[in-house]
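Quick one, probably user error.
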């Protein structure tokens, strides 16, 4: 088989060369993971300063990069913007690419884009020249990537699905943390957490095989529920906080005996530090969302659970009596080695929703920057949306819990039942007091917040329809100016299309990758759950065989 570098398709005349001059690391509590950006455009010698170290740019999963100085509404058009090159890889790229600037490799400073594949490989490319700097396979001796586990969701193999997380301050050169799934010749499956040096992609610490148990009786367990690696995939993005790497776990379709797990590891040693099973005495409740856990500035963690058992019998404090939180939005705390639920929300008809597979867990949590309501009160809000077509705006200080099996009894901050026409499988984004979200086979919609409330109908929407699985948008801006909403049509059965929109009016499109003559910007078929990543004048889009890189021509 030819080496990956032989598959590289480069268009040198279109390359935009940016020189790095800085970066930042993931903060310990809701701190954005994008670095500063002080350049003035291509050729400035100082423009490539923004690192993208975690999914959707920050731990609140807002999807906004506010340090983009190169790409603007004036130059993002088919005359001056388009496909620069394709970075080849050995399998589908479901994890969002991550970007590190001014990283010295072999004595030379590079702006590096990291690409992880479903073939259990990770690549480091120079983001400006398309040079392959490093490539490493994370398969053990005699191992292959996992089969699809008879599930259509990740095919044909399962390797690295979740977006990794990077800490530039860990180790001598920085560290990328990721989970890789594999199997050996005996059919035994493994989930391994790796901590790789950013410059060599070698394991800094011996990788740890994910194993866990938790007190419970789920599926007939005799007091301890075991984590069985082949039953799970790590879909949700990894999160780094408080010196811990957090992982969350989903099943393969709804097959077999599975639960909702959150498992944390010490970032320095990869020693397991905390385990929480969110349906320990019930069933199901996997954590499917692409964003994984979100984190606010207080250190609280948030996620959405899929269909599963919810205990409608509550304790005196309103928590499920048997600790089963299927189909819920949950708020977690980490104290020492203890992960615990501190608050939650589930709908009045949660049991019927789970039975009908119409749950919250298909969407992703979005923590909204502080909003002031009509009384002048500062609100700390979270958006949740899944398969029931409703938009839920939750107060993170009082999420609403469960209020009984009575219609319209939900005690939450704001609900918009039926706001959407179809189910949500994507991650929403936030910019300048607006929410951007797209359901399956729907348009990309803007909801502009007014006095900390969502409008009943979209403020604007795109002309384009986004087929399954919808789209997970990103926003680039220079502070509050020159903002662009980026979205990808990523249905695996048709050509992928990159779109750029005016965030104040999604009916106004600046660019899409079908506009240039002769298919100049075509980059192959879609690859399902893709989130565009924008940094330093470039847009990185995962494909079925690598990453497409767009920028100024």
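Nope, works fine. Designed sequence:
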């Amino acid at each position: 088989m030819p080496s990956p570098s032989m598959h590289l398709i480069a268009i040198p005349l279109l390359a935009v060369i940016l020189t790095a001059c800085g970066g930042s690391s993931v903060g310990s509590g809701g701190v954005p993971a994008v670095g500063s950006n002080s350049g003035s455009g291509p050729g400035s010698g100082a423009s490539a300063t923004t690192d993208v170290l975690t999914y959707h740019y920050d731990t609140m999963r807002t999807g906004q990069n506010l340090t983009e100085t190169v790409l603007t509404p004036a130059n993002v058009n088919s005359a001056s913007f388009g496909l620069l090159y394709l970075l080849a890889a050995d399998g589908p790229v479901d994890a969002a690419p991550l970007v590190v600037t001014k990283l010295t490799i072999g004595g030379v400073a590079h702006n590096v884009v990291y690409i992880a594949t479903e073939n259990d490989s990770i690549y480091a490319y120079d983001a400006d020249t398309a040079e392959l700097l490093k490539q490493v396979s994370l398969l053990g001796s005699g191992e292959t990537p996992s089969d699809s586990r008879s599930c259509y969701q990740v095919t044909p193999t399962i390797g690295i699905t979740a977006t990794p997380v990077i800490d530039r301050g860990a180790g001598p050169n920085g560290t990328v943390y990721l989970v890789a799934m594999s199997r050996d010749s005996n059919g035994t499956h493994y989930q391994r957490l790796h901590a790789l040096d950013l410059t060599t992609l070698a394991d800094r610490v011996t990788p740890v095989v994910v194993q866990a148990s938790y007190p419970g009786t789920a599926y007939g367990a005799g007091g301890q529920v075991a984590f069985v690696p082949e039953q799970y995939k790590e879909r949700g993005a990894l999160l780094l906080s408080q010196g811990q790497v957090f992982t969350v776990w989903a099943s393969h379709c709804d097959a077999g005996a599975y639960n909702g797990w959150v498992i944390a590891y010490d970032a320095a040693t990869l020693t397991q530090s905390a385990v929480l099973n969110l349906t320990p005495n019930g069933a199901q409740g996997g954590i499917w969302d692409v964003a994984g856990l979100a984190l606010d500035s207080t250190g609280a963690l948030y996620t959405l659970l899929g269909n599963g058992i919810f205990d409608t019998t509550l304790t005196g404090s309103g928590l499920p009596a048997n600790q089963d939180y299927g189909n819920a939005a949950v708020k977690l705390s980490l104290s020492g080695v203890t992960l615990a639920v501190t608050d939650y929300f589930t709908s009045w008809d949660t049991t019927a929703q789970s039975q009908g597979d119409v749950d919250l867990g298909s969407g992703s949590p979005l923590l909204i920057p502080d909003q002031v309501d009509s009384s002048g009160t500062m609100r700390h809000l979270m958006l949740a949306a899944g398969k029931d077509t409703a938009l839920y705006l939750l107060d993170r200080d009082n999420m609403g819990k469960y209020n009984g099996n009575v219609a319209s009894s939900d005690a939450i901050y704001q609900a918009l039942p039926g706001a959407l026409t179809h189910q949500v499988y994507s991650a929403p984004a936030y910019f300048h007091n607006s929410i951007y979200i797209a359901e399956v086979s729907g348009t990309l919609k803007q909801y502009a917040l007014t006095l900390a409330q969502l409008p009943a109908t979209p403020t604007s929407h795109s002309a384009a329809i986004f087929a399954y699985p919808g789209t997970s948008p990103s926003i680039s801006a220079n502070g509050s100016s020159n903002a662009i909403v980026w979205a990808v049509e990523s249905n695996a059965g048709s050509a992928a299309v990159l779109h750029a929109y005016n965030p104040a009016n999604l009916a106004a499109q600046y660019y899409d990758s079908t506009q240039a003559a002769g298919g100049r910007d075509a980059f192959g078929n879609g690859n399902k759950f893709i989130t565009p990543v924008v940094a330093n004048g470039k847009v990185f889009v995962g494909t079925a065989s690598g990453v497409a890189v767009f920028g100024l021509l």
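The longest helix spans residues 350-355.
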